[in-house]
Amino acid sequence: MIELSTVERPSDRHELPELTPEVPARLAALRPGVLVVGDVILDEWLTGSAERLCREAPAPVVAVDSRRVAPGGAANTAVNLAALGADVRMVSAVGADDSGAELLAALEKHGVDTSLVTVEPGRRTTAKRRIVAGEQVLVRLDDGDRDQAPLPAPAALRAACDAADAVVVCDYGTGLLTDEVLDVLVGLRSRLPLVVVDAHEPTRWARLRPDLVTPNAGEAGSVLGTAIPRSAAEQLEFLDEHRALLLERTGARAAAVTLDRDGVVLLDGDRPVHRTWARPVPDNHTAGAGDTFCAALTVARCGGLPAVVAVELAQAAADIVVHRPATAVCSVADLADRFGTGAVLDHDRLADVVAEHRSAGRRIVFTNGCFDVLHRGHVNYLNEAKRLGDVLVVAINSDEGVARLKGADRPVSGVADRAAVLSGLSCVDHLTVFDEDTPAALLERLRPEIYAKGGDHRAELLAETAVVAGYGGEVRILSYLPDRSTSAVISRIRRGR
Predict the structure, then answer these.
(1) Would you please indicate which residues are annotated as catalytic (active-site) residues?
(2) pLDDT in tens, 444-486
(3) Domains parsed from the chain with CATH numbers
(4) For a Cys-Cys bond, which of 171, 244, 273, 464 suits 199, CB 3.0-4.6 Å?
(5) How far apart are CA 343 and CA 442, in angstroms?
């Protein structure tokens, strides 16, 4: 069993680990043992073309040319955990039918231990079959997703928990997970290092006192007894205002509320609210994204990554799978590639990209800085800047520029490393580098609607304020978190604290 602090963590909690390409491999190398308990599903995709209507009814005739099956539900969470390096055991039940056999084979192919999956004659394996023509899902046929017989063998569950670094409960309300299962896990809670609950009714698991719950907007609204606002800006304020009630009713230490195309809102105790930013795709590409998010979040927390960094990693994993067809899996290599992109645009290309965004009616927010040793203050202020508009452009001082501003011993990290780290934050849309002491020329060229700076600045003292006012833009000074500065972090590191 691993310790939750195994992955390197800074001694100063204001400094956050960086989401570099090496992080996913370091997490995978820990090989956390994860027990997944819950409702498994066989996802099936029948894909073809539809060029005519049938004679019996006004319905399209789909000429099927391919069939694909994949583990869904808790099984999808399990295979994503395995793909990210975890040793996974699945606790569930399937029927002695073709769907059950296919599902078990798919789990085993992905390296999931199915020895605790019961195969029962008379039980129907839950299957969701989608008929797809081109890119359009025409119909979904659900089989066996209600009134499942209870999960047997709680004794086996007790034994499996003893060796687990984390337990993930996936309860989709089919009846599989009974109060007896809950009682077993509650009795073992003190021995479980990490418990994550992904449930349609999170309040049912409140007695388990989970470390994390991952409700979607509808589930969180049900817990609170009121619908969550549709506006992304209002969602953040609403969830922050109701965090105490949400955590109380779910019994959780922290909640990651998934909001589909609006990203994720992290409510972690009394820490500042944190929001991630998704890369939206059509709804027919979102199957299983929540399972991937839950899996990546679990691996990250098993490895000791702070909750803020863990949800950023999990958001990246979800973004990867939603850009793929059907139910997909995110691997260590996928995440490494995602964090290694860090594409820095030159000023000409950035001007073209900004013009494209503006023609689409998007509001541009611009900020700049050295970002040498990323810390919590940077993350909070960048997320706050993103909330002011639709697109966040971040301009990074070149290495030479940092040396002129901060001294010959800076930067600690070169511009390529600083760009790679910033690209790991979901709130950052575009990056560029500038050599001048101020970004005034770049501001004049891009003319963003908002120029945002951290709370340690004053608008009237910024050389850029006159430029922004000249083209009709607005300067916004954001919140300030005291004692969250790069210089303070470096000083503490040098003192060996």
Answers:
(1) 291
(2) 999 999 999 987 778 777 889 999 999 999 999 987 655 455 5
(3) 23-193+276-339 (3.40.1190.20), 347-494 (3.40.50.620)
(4) 171
(5) 18
